[in-house]
Design goal:
heterotrimer, A mainly alpha (648), B mainly alpha (170), C mainly alpha (107), A: 648 residues, mainly alpha, two-stranded antiparallel ribbon, 72% helix, C: 107 residues, Helix Hairpins
Chain lengths: 648, 170, 107
């Protein structure tokens, strides 16, 4: 093998950017912050590109870099800082550093003028550091470090404008819900350790490969715990509630973290530990059901949202549901494929939405937009590319990846066909609400006439264009070739069908469904806009439930949050804090005070009482010196009563 | 005869001590103490310590008590007033005294080995005493004289008018 | 008669007398209200101790016992001188000799 790939540069360059911008950025001029902030992801990207050559030659894969100093070495537990590069992590890294770099460029224009400019870039770099660590991790513990770290970065960036209560609360909610998932992940790690004795993926994989009869049972439990963690991070049922609120953060943050990279960490985890899931079919079934349910549930909620970013948030949750569905039917490469294409078009959607918001001077409500098609053309055309991609039209990238998922679902048995159907309905809903957004924002008349929209600066538009190109052409590599490339890291799961041309038939069905969604949206939002309101009025209950997101937040609040607050306030505050701890402190102070008050009387200044105490002390001394005390009380008492000095 | 002498002067000593407690004017107490000291001098004689008997009369009752008397007259100390007193003194002090007396008495009365008979053993001559004093214990003797010198200086410094902060009375 | 008269005094009697005098001195120290009288009680205590020293010196025919009494007398004399000087100074500052009135360290 040739020279080292210096994988450690990939996480460390953004970390250096974090430190530099964090400590110095606010004091130095803005070009410094921008340069450092852009240089860091660029360095990572270049190193990733450079490491592609490891896959071309007769190199040994996976490529492992380990820190020579072990991290934990206690007894039989041995954990290293190890970075592993294989096909899966290469794909993820390309997305993270590539799309990440584009979003950094976009942020330069979007965050211009914000007082927290340096802080923003340092946090963004921090996120890149943790995300690359997560993806390059060679064992579950290093992955967990990255996992927690991206949660932290997400919290910092969601609550970036922390002076707003809504933003700060959203950041807290995200972090707390993530923590709930992380608890499951930790349990999973403990179970892994107790069952395998090691946390390194390669070793666990080897152990499972050598023992193919080991199925279910403990492995299912481990997988379910890991799934719980992944559900928290990837916003699946029931832990998705933080993602819509996370839209309080700046739009580039939503694009990078809550569309392209962090939320995909859960999918990555399942793909990375696929060897575990392959041995636990029950867990796979759970994943598939959760994924499909989330997909349709979120799509339903996205139908009636009025905030442009909220629509995209629910869309993200729904698309993540697709990826989980793919994992659930063991089509890991299809899931990763969709992850990649989703990163392209979802990031583009968010960035374009940010451009729209920027053009309108901060307006985010779809009901107040309209007629922007001619006024911000570049934004319009790039967003159009993204909308077509997400709807799944040929030949955009979304078509290939979504079809791969639906095809794999269809082929996996009778239940698989039910899942396929759910996925199909979700595709219909997806197409509908995306085109609804498209029409409401860009077509019709301007509903807020006193705002004069202007096109965004080139620093914001250039990434849009690049991402549009990727959204259009990103899927042309094709699912089979992608799957073949990824096979060494995620396993071969070739799906064969008995029906000829099944794939083609299913693709056509999917495209037709997407077309139907477009037509409905067209009818309701372009040709006769008042029909939308009539439909909503016709089903008032249904509309209200959807608009209020199925009241899930209210349910969580009543069942989880309020009881916890009550316990905190009444038990922990009154009983423990004021009662026990406060009482204890009061007791100590009381003892000292009262003891002082009693002892104070001794120092009276009265000569005669001093004399009395002197005499008493002398008496005691005499007693002890002159009477021969014995070890037991009876003999001593005997001596006292009979008179001292009997022996003398 | 020695027994009678002992009882007589022991009675004097105890009477003087009790009188010291009972009298309210300090001058009466001082005079009672002189009685006690003189009785004790006789008792020393009965124990064969002739030099000490003389020293007791000369130094103690002759010099120290005279000093006390002078100070009482100088300060014109009158009868004692009846002040509040101290409960602690009575509550703790008296039992302590009883305990002290009880322990000492019981130790003394039960002790064996006290066989001597006082003056009948023989008198300790001054020559014997001075032989030990000026040979073996010369250094403590000289140190004691320095001590007395320091005491004189201290007394002069303390009692001088103008020492101390405020001048009250006189 | 002569045998009764020439009968010696048991030394424990002297020790008992010494204990009684000492106890009386402590009582005087406790109950007396005049500062000088308290000082007198202290002198009484010292004398009681002297008596017991001499008794033991007689018992074991140790001259050093008597020399110790000699030193005690010297030190008592010095102490009396200094103590009375202090009493004079206290009287000058406080204009009272009552023990209960003198209860502050600061004159």
């Amino acid at each position: 093998m040739n020279a080292s790939l210096h994988l450690w540069l990939i996480p460390l360059a953004p970390f250096a950017g974090f430190v530099l911008n964090g400590l110095l950025g606010s004091r130095l001029p803005r070009w410094f912050t921008t340069s450092v902030g852009l240089l860091a992801p660029l360095v990572s990207f270049v190193v990733v590109i450079n490491s592609i050559r490891a896959f071309t030659g007769a190199a040994q894969l996976p490529y492992v870099e380990t820190c020579p100093h072990p991290w934990i070495s206690v007894g039989s537990l041995h954990i290293d800082f190890s970075l592993v590069l294989d096909q899966l992590s290469l794909v993820m890294l390309l997305v993270i550093t590539g799309v990440g770099f584009l979003i950094h460029i976009y942020s330069v224009g979007y965050m211009r003028g914000d007082p927290g400019y340096a802080r923003y870039f340092s946090f963004l770099n921090l996120f890149l550091f943790f995300m690359s660590t997560l993806v390059l991790a060679g064992n579950a513990l290093v992955l967990f470090v990255g996992w927690e770290g991206v949660g932290l970065a997400s919290y910092l960036l969601i609550g970036f404008w922390f002076q707003r209560d809504v933003a700060a609360n959203a950041g807290k909610k995200a972090f707390i819900v993530n923590r709930v998932g992380d608890f499951g992940f930790l349990i999973g790690i403990f179970l892994l350790l107790s069952n395998f004795g090691t946390l390194a993926f390669s070793e666990i994989s080897a152990k499972l490969a050598g023992n193919p009869a080991w199925q279910g049972g403990a492995l299912t439990l481990i997988c379910l715990c890991l799934l719980f963690g992944a559900a928290g991070k990837s916003a699946q049922l029931p832990l998705y509630v933080w993602l819509p609120d996370a839209m309080e953060g700046p739009t580039p943050v939503s694009a990078l973290i809550h569309a392209a990279t962090m939320v995909t960490a859960g999918v990555y985890l399942v793909a990375r530990t696929h060897f575990l899931f392959d041995h636990a079919p029950a867990a796979l079934a759970v994943i598939a059901v959760v994924g499909a349910a989330t997909a349709i549930f979120a799509a339903a909620m996205g139908l009636v949202q009025n905030d442009i970013k909220r629509v995209l948030a629910y869309s993200t949750i729904s698309q993540l549901g697709y990826m989980f569905l793919a994992c659930g039917v063991a089509a890991y490469s299809a899931a990763i494929f969709h992850l990649v294409t989703h990163a392209f078009f979802k990031a583009l959607l968010f960035l374009a939405a940010g451009s729209v918001i920027h053009a309108l001077g901060g307006e985010q409500d779809l009901r107040k937009m309209g007629g922007l098609r001619k006024k911000i053309p570049i934004t319009f055309w790039t967003m159009t590319a993204a909308v077509f991609a997400i709807a799944g039209f040929f030949p955009f990238s979304g078509f290939f990846s979504k079809d791969a998922i639906l095809y794999a679902a269809f082929l996996s048995g009778r239940n698989g066909q039910i899942l396929w159907f759910v996925g199909l309905v979700t595709a219909l809903l997806t197409s509908f609400y995306m085109f609804r957004l498209w029409y409401m924002a860009f077509f019709g008349e301007a509903r807020s006439p006193d705002v004069h929209p202007h096109e965004s600066p080139w620093s914001m538009l250039a990434p849009l264009v690049i991402l549009a190109v990727l959204s259009i052409g990103g899927g042309w590599v094709g699912a089979e070739r992608f799957g073949a490339f990824l096979a060494p890291s995620v396993g071969e799961h070739a799906a064969l069908s008995t029906i000829p041309h099944l794939e083609l038939i299913l693709s056509i069905v999917a495209v037709l469904v997407a077309l139907e969604g477009w037509l409905i949206a067209d009818k309701l939002y372009r040709r006769r806009p008042e029909r939308a309101a009539q439909w909503a009025a016709a089903l008032p209950w249904g509309y209200k439930i959807l608009l209020n997101k199925f009241y899930v937040d209210e349910f969580y609040s009543a069942v989880l949050v309020k009881p916890l607050l009550a316990v905190s306030k009444f038990f922990l505050d009154w009983v423990v804090d004021k009662g026990i701890l406060g009482g204890f402190a009061w007791l100590l102070a009381g003892i000292a005070t009262y003891a002082g008050m009693i002892l104070q009387r001794w120092q009276s200044g009265n000569l005669r009482s001093y004399a009395a105490w002197l005499a008493a002390a002398a008496a005691v001394l005499l007693l002890f010196l002159l009477i021969p005390w014995h070890a037991d009380w009876a003999a001593s008492l005997h001596i006292i009563l009979k008179g001292a000095g009997a022996e003398r | 005869m020695y027994l009678a002498l002992f009882f007589l002067f022991a009675a004097f000593a105890i009477a003087g001590a009790v009188n010291l407690l009972v009298q309210s004017h300090p001058i009466n107490s001082a005079l009672s103490l002189i009685v006690v000291m003189t009785s004790l001098a006789i008792l020393y004689l009965l124990l064969g310590a002739e030099f000490l008997a003389a020293a007791q009369v000369i130094v103690y009752s002759g010099a120290v008590m005279v000093l006390f008397t002078f100070v009482i007259m100088l300060l014109n100390a009158g009868r004692e007033e009846h002040t509040l007193g101290s409960r602690a003194a009575r509550a703790i002090g008296f039992p302590a005294v009883v305990v002290i007396l009880g322990v000492l008495a019981s130790v003394v009365l039960r002790a064996r080995g006290l066989t001597a008979n006082g003056i009948q053993q023989g008198v300790t001559t001054t020559e014997e005493l001075s032989r030990v004093l000026f040979r073996e214990l010369l250094l403590p003797f000289e140190v004691t004289s320095v001590l007395i010198l320091i005491a004189i200086l201290g007394a002069v410094a303390l009692a001088r008018r103008g020492s101390g902060e405020s001048e009250a009375g006189q | 008669m002569s045998s009764a008269l020439s009968q010696g005094v048991p030394l424990s009697a002297y020790l008992l007398l010494s204990a009684v005098l000492f106890a009386l001195g402590v009582v005087g120290f406790l109950i007396k209200r005049n500062l000088i009288t308290v000082f007198l009680s202290i002198e009484l205590m010292l004398n009681a101790v002297n008596l017991s020293f001499v008794t033991f010196a007689c018992q074991w025919h140790a001259v050093k016992g008597q020399i110790f009494v000699f030193f005690v007398m010297m030190v008592a004399a010095a102490e009396a001188a200094v103590g009375l000087a202090i009493i004079i100074a206290v009287y000058r500052a406080r204009a009272t000799l009552s023990v209960d009135r003198i209860d502050l360290m600061k004159l």
